[in-house]
């Protein structure tokens, strides 16, 4: 198949999933064309089957903002026409699905409906729960969903939320996030600890784009409570709007020497491999890819009962799930995991096993089958 993938290039789950999917499809012999503002953060690879199309923004003094969606539509139409794309897969409803719709309209005069690509939209989370919940955006998100040939969501939770909020005309198929366990596995290296100036303390980790839904302040509060009870260091990977607030809290609590802000990193396996606990106290999380990747590296998770976490994290087995905002509860469970080594060992092993249920190969097969089903429909 010839597949176009539209994704955000920035640090975040939807771009990671889209990029890993495209790479895996290309490895299976499909031709994959990526469309984005810049090279997606996980697309550091060479393959004869992968093409990247940078969407160039046109600046003209009359415009206060650049028309990314229009430039994207125009690029998709061009590539779809000349490279005869079978499927265009939009990751994140807007503007991606709308641009792909517009591209199809651009092609109407040149191709018959049956020659044109099928549009698949994958809902990732905030496209529904934050952007889609905004009354000013609701109708465009609904249009994106209803005009796609196929719609998938990354968890049952997100599917239910979408149905509740948008009553879509189409059936939404759940295809969850996935992890490549041949790359994500625990391989602790002493030199990583040395490079970071770590001793033998317990390592707590959090990876995200530091947006409000991630509740970074709660991470700092939980960690602060832990520092009073055991020797531990917090590694914060990623960056985003809540970073400054987090730094202020860290200074206020006087724990600056125990918290390391590492910024946006592509290769997180070396850090996950030395981590003892992943903290994800999000108040909304459609799936939580970072938690799954941590589990693949044998890192138990303390997260919230929110969103998609309960679909793959079994409390007591892979970590613990508490109510959003329950800092005390999350602190207690984090302390339990960090202080009871036999329990940690059991959870760590169970996490590795659980992650194998979400192996890239099998989820990519589900996407392939989904594309084929849509292509066979006409
Ligand atoms: O950060 C992103 O790239 C998008 C994003 C979002 O905010 O919607 O992340 C979502 O997509 C990931 C991959 O499918 C999920 O694992 C995340 O849980 C989800 N984030 C939220 O729902 C907050």
Describe the structure.
- With 378 residues, the chain is of the alpha/beta class.
- It has two domains: 2-178 and 359-376, Rossmann fold (3-Layer(aba) Sandwich); 190-358, Glycogen Phosphorylase B (Rossmann fold), CATH 3.40.50.2000.
- Helix content is 43%, strand content 17%.
- It has 15 helices and 13 strands.
- Helix 6 links the parallel strand 6 and strand 7 (172-174).
- Helix 3 (93-107) crosses helix 5.
- The chain is elongated, with a radius of gyration of 21 Å.
- The mean pLDDT is 95.
Largest sheet: 7 strands, parallel
Number of helices: 15
CATH topology of the largest domain: Rossmann fold
What is the oligomer described by this structure? single chain
CATH superfamily of the largest domain: Glycogen Phosphorylase B
Helix and strand layout, with pairings?
Layout lengths: L1 E5 L6 H15 L3 E6 L13 E5 L13 H16 L3 E5 L1 H15 L10 E6 L2 H4 L8 H9 L3 E4 L2 H11 L5 E3 L15 H6 L6 E6 L8 H12 L4 E6 L5 H11 L5 E5 L5 H4 L4 E4 L8 H8 L4 E4 L4 H4 L6 E4 L4 H13 L1 H16 L3 H17 L2
Parallel strand pairs: 1-2, 1-4, 2-3, 4-5, 5-6, 6-7, 8-9, 8-11, 9-10, 11-12, 12-13
Helix pairs in contact: 1-15, 2-3, 3-5, 8-9, 8-13, 11-14, 13-14
Bound molecules: ligand GMT.
